Amino acid sequence: MLSAIELSDWFGGEAKRVYCLFTESEQEEENRKLIEWVHRHGGQVTARELQKNLSRYGTSALANEVLEELVKTGHGRWQPVPSGPKGGQPTRVFLIADINDTDRTS
After folding, report:
1. In the chain, which residue ranges form alpha helices assigned H by DSSP?
2. Do the strands 76-81 and 44-45 form a parallel or antiparallel pair, or are they unpaired?
3. What's the pTM?
């Protein structure tokens, strides 16, 4: 009986998830696909990596803008990355928000 309840709860959650896909805006769909891509690539990405791997984000400014929007909507956060031992420019990496992150707003 408990297994049946767990299974029906799972199906209920999946039904909600699928119905949300039907009602999402183009921007929400683009954000969701980007989040899924970042998740498949280890859960973190720099703007440069995004620019190199997804041609639709072909400029540094656009890649930064898109990732900044994900930060503003609570889907991730920036983590600074200091220069390495040989020097170089410090940068930052976008990390997907964990459901346990306290700074998630949505």
Report:
1. 2-23, 26-40, 47-53, 60-72
2. unpaired
3. 0.66
State the Cα–Cα distance between residues 37 and 33, nearest whole angstrom: 6
Q: Alpha-carbon distance 38 to 53, whole Å?
A: 11
Cα 68 from Cα 78, distance rounded (Å):
8
The per-residue pLDDT for 44 is 94
pLDDT per residue as tens digits for the range 49-77: 999 999 888 898 999 999 999 999 999 99
Answer yes or no: are the C-beta atoms of 81 and 57 closer than 8 Å.
no
According to DSSP, the β-strands at 91-96 and 76-81 are antiparallel
